[in-house]
Amino acid sequence: MKGESMSQVMFDLDVLRSFSTGIALGSYARAADRLGRSTSAVSAQLKKLEAQAGTALFRKAGRGLELTDAGETLLAYARRMLELNAEAGAAMRGADLEGWVRLGLQEDFGETLLPAVLGRFARAHPKVRIEACVARSAELRERLELRQLDLALVWDTGEQMTPHGERVARLPLQWIGPRAPDALDAAWWKERERRGNSARKSKEPLPLVLLDAPCPLREIVVAALDRAGTPWRHAFTSASLAALWAATSAGLGLSVRTPFGLPAHVRAIDRTAIGLPALPQMSLMLYRAQAAAEAPVARLDALLLEAVREHVQAEPAQLH
């Protein structure tokens, strides 16, 4: 048959890596530097890739280039192929890896990172067992100090923790409201819309949706509002982040979080349009119980770092 006689395209992983790295870094000159190649060599790889694809992958956009629809499609496949290649390599290197890893995460990362990371790890290292603990920062910090955890991915609040840590990302705190603005508390929202920045002088208190005390983020938010002279009230509190998102989505008030892992039914609010104070950034840290980790712990450590950085790179408009 005609289809069977056609030669199959075999994409070169090395070329796909250059393609993907250039998009991630926003420049193929930077990609060439990162990959230890000349810019002309990377340019030749991209021409080869377009020839293999049989269609244009880039189009002019001002002084630069942007991906075509075909380029976007190929980029998604390139990332999957490179990820699978890395996973296969890890599986071969650690096929006989055995042991136990105890991982701590805050609730922000449970749905965003945990399924993909644990899936990749389990396929590569089926003999290693993982115990995951999803909890708030204070509990994770205590468990880490007691050596009940090997790794903990937490938001840094400036409190003293184990020295074996690494800052993974620094992300802005944002005011978070429901996807539909008209779902917000009517009296407060209508006044903000009507008065804009001058609404900070209003006596109508801002309804807050925050985690139960003790919570360092709660203290940051309240301090920022008090400094700005903005009245506030606790409209909803809970120990569960999922419950906060439900209350925020229902319009009970505004919450505060980084853009990492926001569910689809809430959104970041433009604070300047309604006179809310600016908020600081938070550091996302990966802490380790000990500097020299055993092989299973070191492997999960590397996968977590990679997954977080990929997530941050994939959402630049929200995270920076």
UniProtKB/TrEMBL annotation:
Which branch of life, at top level? Bacteria
Q: Name one GO molecular function term.
A: DNA binding
Stored Pfam families: HTH_1, LysR_substrate
**Which residues are in the HTH lysR-type domain?**
11-68
Q: Cite the PROSITE patterns for this sequence.
A: HTH_LYSR (PS50931)
Keywords on record: DNA-binding, Transcription, Transcription regulation
Family recorded in the similarity comment: Belongs to the LysR transcriptional regulatory family.
Q: What name does the UniProt record give this protein? A: HTH-type transcriptional regulator YofA
Organism annotation: Variovorax paradoxus
Lineage of the source organism?
Bacteria, Pseudomonadati, Pseudomonadota, Betaproteobacteria, Burkholderiales
